[in-house]
Specification:
Elements (H helix, E strand, L loop, with lengths): L1 E4 L4 H5 L3 H10 L3 E3 L2 E6 L2 E8 L3 E8 L5 H19 L3 H16 L1
Antiparallel strand pairs: 1-5, 2-3, 3-4, 4-5
Helix pairs in contact: 2-3
C-alpha cells in the first residue's frame, strides 16, 4: 500500500463520490466497497483507493506477464489518476517522496 499527500484544496474534490468519479473517468469504470474505490484496468488486477481527507491511499495488485503496450497504457492511466486525485504531477510526487525519505532518515 502507498500513501500520497494531497495538494491543498484537492481533498474537497475527493469528498463524497469525487474519488470514484475520477477513477471511473480514467479507468472506464470503478466500483465501491464501503468508502473504498475498486478498479480493474489493463495490467492492474485490483486497485483499492481511499482517502482520509489528508492523504490518498492506494493498494494495487498487478497482473504478471502483461504485454508491453498494456503495461504502458496502465502506467499512463495510473499516473493520470494520481495527478487528478492528489493535485501533484509525477515529478512533484517524486520530489515529495524523496524529501519525506530524507526527513525520516535524519
Amino acid at each position: 500500500m502507498r500513501e500520497y499527500e494531497l495538494k491543498r484544496g484537492a481533498a474537497k474534490a475527493l469528498e463524497g463520490d469525487g474519488l470514484r468519479v475520477i477513477a471511473a473517468e480514467i479507468f472506464a469504470g470503478a466500483g465501491t466497497e464501503g468508502n473504498r474505490i475498486i478498479v480493474t484496468f489493463g495490467a492492474i488486477e485490483r486497485m483499492v483507493a481511499w482517502t482520509d481527507g489528508k492523504k490518498l491511499f492506494v493498494d494495487t495488485t498487478m497482473k504478471s506477464g502483461a504485454p508491453d503496450h498494456v503495461a504502458t497504457d496502465t502506467i499512463k492511466a495510473f499516473n493520470t489518476f494520481l495527478e487528478k486525485a492528489t493535485g501533484f504531477t509525477a515529478k512533484e510526487r517524486g520530489k515529495r517522496a524523496q524529501a519525506a525519505a530524507k526527513k525520516g532518515e535524519a
